[in-house]
Task: structure prediction
Amino acid sequence: MEQKRLYRSATDKKLCGVCAGIAEYINIDPTLVRLLWVIFGCMGGSGVLAYIVAAIIMPVRYER
Result:
């Protein structure tokens, strides 16, 4: 059994593919994750900082 890994999406991305990668990892619609990022971003800016950190740390997954 292959271990599940968290990647940024290389195909379904608006900025860096972080939200699409997280949505794929937890198997939900990317729009919901993007909406949550916007909400957290409006709450003191913590979502913006978290997105930047995730974009730097998460590797890109190129489709096979």
In short: The chain has a mean pLDDT of 85. The beta strands are 8-9, 60-61. DSSP finds three helices and two strands in the chain. The longest helix spans residues 30-42.
